[in-house]
Amino acid sequence: MEFEKQKIWGNLIAADLFFSGIGGGCFFLSFLLEIQNKYGPISNLGEILTPIFISIALLCLLFHLRIPIRFYRVFLNPSSWMTRGSVILSIFFISSLLYSLPSFETFNWLPWSKASSLGRVILIIAIAFSLLNMIYPAVLLSVPKHIQSWEISILLPLFLFLSLYTGLAVLLLITISYVRILGDQTITILHMLGKIGIMLIIIEIFTLYIFTKTMLNGNQPAKESIFLLIKGELMPLFIGGVVIIGLIVPFFMFISSIFIVSMPPLLILAGVSGLLILMGGFLLRYVIVKAGVYSPIYIERSII
């Protein structure tokens, strides 16, 4: 039986999903920190970084479509999930930016604050679109019905928690950069983020297991996609990069960090684990995109 890997979506789509996921997860977690009224510098920087990640994601999408100059054309086909995704990214970019700006003295002249009625409306919009942004990749990949490994019911929780996981990595790196301002509070924050990281890793491993198990029990094209990940050419990236480097190593680093109260080793563990999470987060999106396999029926029809 002949199978053919999809070649339409490649590195730029993987990068788009990566940066948009980081943006969604970073904003949502930053908001959760903000409502605790303890982690102002971290949540403020996490929120202001969100539009930057989203703008990078939009650029990746536009260059994939080969229309970086005539960017407006991407918004002209409302029936396309590429167009809908661009709208989601754009609204999330605007709302997250408008909500985060009043946190900085430079923008005290703005006619709203985070606590104002308008600020709360902007926040609701930003939170809603952060969630849409985190699950959008699963919807986008599920559009081609002839690629069985991109089934939305499996990918939706996988991408949701993956976005939160990579967003957590950014907050870890932000905390390290604010160590002089936070002082001893840095230890408390890193312990808290480490516990969240442990929880997200367990959930992500479980969703990956369900994803793999479902595909192995699926039809032949689905099995072919999984074989590419666990036995084929993508195995080093999936097993070595995603599972070991992106999940297992950070898991044990988070476990160790909970019992460490000395600042230098804790900062090293947080920094390294943050970078490993980002690496694994990109590789997971990359291998899922690359493992898309057309069914033989689709190939035959496309030839006819």
Write the CATH architecture name: Up-down Bundle
Structural class estimated from helices and strands = mainly alpha
Sequence of secondary-structure elements: EHHHHHHHHHHEH
Portion in strands: under 5%
Please name the CATH topology.
Formate dehydrogenase/DMSO reductase fold
Total helices: the number is 11
Strands across the major sheet, in which order? 1-2
**Uncertain runs:** 298-304
Instruction: Profile the largest sheet.
Output: 2 strands, antiparallel
CATH class: Mainly Alpha
Bin the helical content: over 70%
Tell me the number of strands: 2
Summarize the structure in words.
The protein is mainly α and 304 residues long. The protein has a single domain, classed as Up-down Bundle (Formate dehydrogenase/DMSO reductase fold), CATH 1.20.1630. It is 75% helix and 1% strand. It contains eleven helices and two strands. The chain has helices spanning 11-34, 40-64, 81-100, 117-142, 152-177, 179-182, 185-216, 220-230, 235-258, 263-290, 296-303; strands at 4-5, 293-294. The chain has a two-stranded antiparallel sheet with strand order 1-2. Helix 2 (40-64) crosses helix 5 (152-177), helix 7 (185-216) packs antiparallel against helix 9 (235-258) and helix 7 packs parallel to helix 10. The longest helix has 32 residues, at 185-216. The radius of gyration is 20 Å and the shape is globular. The two termini are 17 Å apart. Residues 298-304 have low confidence and may be disordered.
